[in-house]
Amino acid sequence: MSEPVDRLSALLERFRVRAHLFHNGPLCGITHYEAVPGRAFLHVLRSGEMTVAHPQRAGPPRRLQVREPSLLFYPRPLAHAFHNAPAEGSDFVCAVLDFDGGDTHPLVRALPPLVLLPLSWVPGLAPALSLLFAETEQLRCGQRLLADRLFEVVLLQLLRWLIDHPEQIALPPGLLTGLGDPALARALVAVHEAPGAAWSLERMAAEAGLSRSVFASRFKQVVGSTPADYLAGWRISLAQSALRRGRPVKLIADDLGYANASALSRVFAQKVGVSPRQWLADLDRRAASAATPASSSRPEAGSGTPEM
């Protein structure tokens, strides 16, 4: 039980996150960022101060004062605006994040609407940020691609910190708090790595090194669901990912440990509210209605909507 486990690789290998740098430099006046389906934001305030504004009843406070270099992470679509001094604009590096599956990505569901952290709180960020800032300070071959990858490293470092310090930002019960519990993390990682195995409460408890009763109680308290519900939710998330890639329901059922396609469809309908076929049709319909000639998957460099 003393050996550490890799708590993130199995999850992020199945549900990838991609970053795209879109702004580097000062911002002054008011800059708006719209809530666009499927779009997450990661902003790094290098220097300066600002006020951050959110819509009423959006979740985060209506207005926040940021007075030191900080990281602002919006894992789900949420409109926000930066208010910077007209003359002494703050310096930013910003990226949009594409989570596989958007709002159905397990990490997106586990995170609060805004993570705001002073950079000084996360010492592990320093090496990656130093490289990121160096790449954005002058134009070199492959700059944009390398900056994108470095932003992904920054996100990974942030997730590591959140798992190890859930109490400092009051993370709600969920996947990240579960991964922060050494015993539960072993069971969760085992399920993530082998979702189609014949998981029982006894087998999951054995992975955690706990009795059935202690494991079930602790899992419910820390993760916020029963082990069986979590297992079903993880499998359905994987099924949704496979459906988006065009994989047949029967093969998905075989991979995830269901007796047949009908068994998977029943659980899918219980969790999602519609059958796999209907869910995929609805997904295609939404994608078609959102596709316009002017649409873009990311903001252009220096964008948001500035008001000077």
Descriptive key words:
single chain; 308 residues; alpha+beta; Jelly Rolls; 2 domains; 5-stranded antiparallel sheet
In short:
With 308 residues, the chain is of the alpha+beta class. It has helices at residues 9-14, 106-110, 126-136, 143-164, 175-179, 182-193, 201-208, 212-223, 227-244, 249-255, 261-272, 276-290; strands spanning 17-27, 29-33, 40-47, 50-53, 63-66, 70-74, 80-84, 90-99, 115-118, 305-307.
> How many alpha or pi helices?
12
Query: Under CATH, the topology of the largest domain is which?
Result: Jelly Rolls
Q: Compute the CA-based radius of gyration.
A: 21 Å
Q: Please, how many domains?
A: 2
Model description:
The chain has 308 residues and is of the alpha+beta class. The chain has two domains: 15-171, Jelly Rolls (Sandwich); 175-288, Orthogonal Bundle (Arc Repressor Mutant, subunit A). The chain is built from twelve helices and ten strands. It has a five-stranded antiparallel beta sheet with strand order 1-8-3-6-9. Strands 5-4-7-2-10 form a five-stranded antiparallel beta sheet, with no helix packed on it. α3 (126-136) packs antiparallel against α4, α6 (182-193) crosses α7 and α10 (249-255) packs across α11 (261-272). The radius of gyration is 21 Å and the shape is globular. The protein starts with 8 loop residues before the first helix and ends with a strand. Residues 293-297 have low confidence and may be disordered.
Per-chain topology:
Elements: H1 9-14, E1 17-27, E2 29-33, E3 40-47, E4 50-53, E5 63-66, E6 70-74, E7 80-84, E8 90-99, H2 106-110, E9 115-118, H3 126-136, H4 143-164, H5 175-179, H6 182-193, H7 201-208, H8 212-223, H9 227-244, H10 249-255, H11 261-272, H12 276-290, E10 305-307
Antiparallel strand pairs: 1-8, 2-7, 2-10, 3-6, 3-8, 4-5, 4-7, 6-9
